[in-house]
């Protein structure tokens, strides 16, 4: 009986040592990925704006940072599937960074062809890291959202001394308006 308990304790210690080793290795990989993302910021200033390399760095740096963030999250949660966590965090971080870049392109269509593209790196790398760090929380929240919950804006016409304005109409009022019911 005592021999059996000793073997079980030895097996538990072996598993714990393996987990600790995997955590150290994954954190080192995360550190290398984060260093790579930060290095991309420096390289981004030396590459010609608008070139393929500039765009690759702008898209790749936040993905590297997101992978690092996902690894940090995984190491702090004592998980066992760090490759899965890293891949999911990288995907979420890349999309988050692209969602950050898209409005920049709408506001200034030539931003990627100017030197401002390199300045975007200071924003997209942290966005990628945070997205990777919190990817599971964001995913859980997105799954709970009601995508059919839609509100509309109503144009309030200009009157004396007032300009045209937009007013948010709640969904319940939209239904009432659509059917000609007084929703007040």
Radius of gyration: 25 Å
What about the largest sheet?
A: 2 strands, antiparallel
Q: Order of strands in the sheet with the most strands?
A: 1-2
Distance between the termini: 77 Å
Total number of domains:
2
Strand content: 5-15%
Low-confidence stretches: 174-179
Number of DSSP-assigned strands: 2
Mean pLDDT: 77
Structural class: mainly alpha
Give, in order, the helices and strands. HHHHHEEH
Number of helices: 6
Choose one word for the global shape.
elongated
Helix content: over 70%
Description:
The chain has 184 residues and is mainly alpha-helical. The chain folds into 2 domains: 2-144, no CATH class; 147-184, no CATH class. Helix content is 72%, strand content 5%. It has helices spanning 2-46, 52-77, 82-107, 116-133, 135-144, 171-178; strands at 152-156, 165-169. The protein has a two-stranded antiparallel ribbon with strand order 1-2.
